[in-house]
Amino acid sequence: MQSFAEKLQSTATSFGGFVPELVLSAGIVIIVVAGLIARKQPVWTALLCALVFLASLLFELTYWNAYATPRGLFSNMLRSDSFSAYLRIIIDISGLLTVFMTTRDPKPLRFHAEYYALLATVILGAHLLVMSQSLAMVFLSLEMISLSSYVLAGFSFSRHGTEGSLKYFLFGSVSSAAMLYGFSFLYGLTGTLDFSAPEFARQLIEHPSPLFFVAAAFALAGFFFKIAAAPLHPWVPDVYEAAPTPVVAFFAVVPKLAGLGVLARFTLVLQAGGHAIFDWQLVLCAVAILSLTVGNFSALWQKNAKRLMGYSSVAQSGFLLVGIAAFLPQGIHYLLFYASAYAVGSFIVFLYLHYFERLGFSSLESFAGTGRVWLWPSVFLLIGFISLTGLPPTGGFTGKLFIFTSLWDAYQLSGKSIVLWLMIFGLLNTVVSLFYYLRIPFFAFVRNGKHVATTNNLTFENLLGLLLVVGILFLFFNPGLLMGWINKINFAL
Amino acid sequence: MAPVHHFLYLGAFLFSTGLIVIITKRNTIMVLLGLELMLNASNLNLVAFNSLHPGSLQGQMFALFVIVVAVCEAAVGLAIVLRVYRQYRTSVPDHVNELNQ
User: Is residue A75 one of the residues assigned to a domain?
Assistant: First the structure.
């Protein structure tokens, strides 16, 4: 047993690996206070929020080498390693992009300080979630993300926004209550909340009881809700349709990647190196197949662009789960690569959906003829959609190639037929997704419209969009640069 | 002291009651009540299981945190219900379906 002084000492040293999160926590307080002073100037709170995210990002980058040696923080509640650091970097960049998108809205943002404080809270929750290795921390950080997201979903202050917020809340709260019930049994059966502890895995292997399966399935329900995977997806299209577009872009990346990060850790423990009596690979493959199929086929019938993106997000969760379902170290590396390509592609699409939404285009038909008038925005939107589909020459293609390669390796190793089925469904669904992803570009470039407006090509969107498009093309032409960085990440528990 | 499994039965009963309330009752306020039952079932489990592992207080600490989170969840939930009531003049989720039409 440690003495009190030793515990105090270890807590004090833990703060060294916790700097970005401290910055975010302080930032939330400062944003709320700044909102009281600059009531009518949303510019200041936006600037402050962007600075907080930038500071957190810079700290991640400066500590990058220190993260290479994993260590537990705060008596193993959290774990600082390069896997979580990589995801935290993507999360911070997504936060920055969301702030930029929000400031482009011509309408004055109501309750701007609260809005930015909630954004920063979700980012902080996502940071903690990818770092957590204790069931208590997982629950707390997941609720931190969820509670702020319920409020953010209603930030359009319209009837529809309120409805989306209510549906999000009902689904989210019930699935997190079920997850907590699962956690309580996992704690009872193993005697520890630290799921990376050796005794957790040992109890899992030594005392196989059906209760384990039920408890872990309940626990997984919470994660699947957070990443919008199939059996728990009905909230997705409603929330995506009703929430403000910058918030939707944020939801499509931040909570999803945070949930995937913790899911990758948690399922690796459950699988226990193949010694577990229940085949969790089967469960993950089944969920991935279901997400792919439900997401893609429902997206085919959609008429609203944001609703379509909601179903696309469900399908993308299926593709991201493929990286975890392979249960191979390189699967995790490829998952990180695909997640980066997905984040960039998704932000390109939402950036321009937001741009066109402000011009009054939201249904698919209304995009008719826009390609002739708004040439560059439409071309960039097309590249974003191509990347989400997974066609060359974009990073989405490279990412899909990588994760399916690792899945094929997993099939060669295990010979399980469900893995082969996942492969077949994944490839077929890529073809299906082509039909709906290319519908907006089809309307934009092929159909004729009656737009006569002249446009300025030198907008902020085009500058930011160009940057992202160059990024996604770079991921295709030179994937080695990012992969070399990712390959240094050590994902052992 | 009563054996641990009695508490687990009570927990399971509370959890299923909460779930049934959420599924069958149509009012959002009743859904919030059912949610509290589900969360408290987990709390009961955590505290009961802690007596099996007397070396630490992890389960009891977790239960304390869950109580705080449950309060936050109820606060956010009630705020959303209030907003829905202002806009739709109802708190029944089934009557709030203008999306997807």
Answer: yes
Per-residue pLDDT at A205: 81
Please indicate, yes or no, whether residues A250 and A285 belong to a single structural domain of this protein: no
Residues of chain A with pLDDT under 50: none
Minimal Cα distance from B39: which residue of A? A177
Together in a domain, A26 and A141: yes
Interface test with A, best of B15, B21, B42 (most A CBs within 10 A): B42
Nearest CA in chain B to A163: B96
Distance CA A267, CA B13 (A): 29
| CB within 8 Å: A143 and B18 | no
Chain B residues with CB under 8 Å of A139 CB are 62, 65-66, 69
Q: What is the tally of structural domains in chain A?
A: 2
Q: Which helix (H) or strand (E) holds A79?
A: strand A78-80
- Alpha-carbon gap, residue A100 to A280, rounded angstroms: 40
Q: For residue A1, what pLDDT is reported?
A: 55
pLDDT higher for B38 or A327? B38
A23 & A132 share domain: yes
The DSSP result for A6-37, as a single string, is HHHHHHHHHGGGGHHHHHHHHHHHHHHHHHHH
- How many Cβ atoms sit within 10 Å of the Cβ of residue A70? 17
A10 in a structural domain: no
Specify whether A266 is located in the same domain as A292: no
Residue A393 has a pLDDT of: 87
Residue B6 has pLDDT above 80, yes or no: yes
Task: Give a yes or no: residue A451 inside a domain.
Answer: yes
**AA letter at A109:** L
- Kindly state whether residues A301 and A376 are assigned to the same domain: yes
Q: Between chains, do B80 and A169 touch, taking CB under 8 Å as contact?
A: yes
Q: Is the distance from CB of A385 to CB of A440 less than 8 angstroms?
A: yes
Pairwise CB contact (< 8 Å): A188 & B99: no
Let me know whether A469 and A385 are in one domain. yes
Residues A370 and A301 in one domain: yes
The yes or no reply on domain B4-95 and CATH 1.10.472.20 is no
Of B19, B42, B77, the CB nearest to A180: B42
Residue A361: the pLDDT is: 85
Which of A239, A274, A309 is the C-terminal boundary of a domain? A274
Tell me: the pLDDT tens digits for A106-124? Answer: 787 888 899 999 999 999 9
Domain assignment of residue A1, yes or no: no
Give the SS3 label for residue A388: helix
- When pLDDT is cut at 50, 70 and 90, the band that residue B94 belongs to is confident
Distance between CA atoms of residues B49 and B53, nearest Å: 7
Instruction: Please write the tens of the pLDDT for every residue from B15-28.
Output: 999 999 999 988 89
Closest CA to B93 of B26, B42, B22: B26
What is the mean pLDDT of the segment spanning B51-62? 88
- CB spacing of B96 vs A163 below 8 angstroms: yes
At A452 the pLDDT is 66
Beta-carbon count within 10 A of B93 CB: 18
- What is the chain B residue with the closest CA to A301? B100
Domain that holds residue A461: 279-493
Residue of A300, A295, A336, A297 lying closest to A317 (CA atoms): A295
- Which residues in chain B have their CB less than 8 angstroms from residue A248's CB? none
A211 vs B: CB within 8 A: no
Put simply, whether A143 touches B (Cβ < 8 Å) is yes
- Same-domain check for residues A72 and A202: yes
pLDDT at A278: 80
Of chain A residues 244-273, which have a CB less than 8 A from chain B? none
* Cβ pairs A/B, distance under 8 A: 113
> How confident is the model at residue A492, as a pLDDT?
63
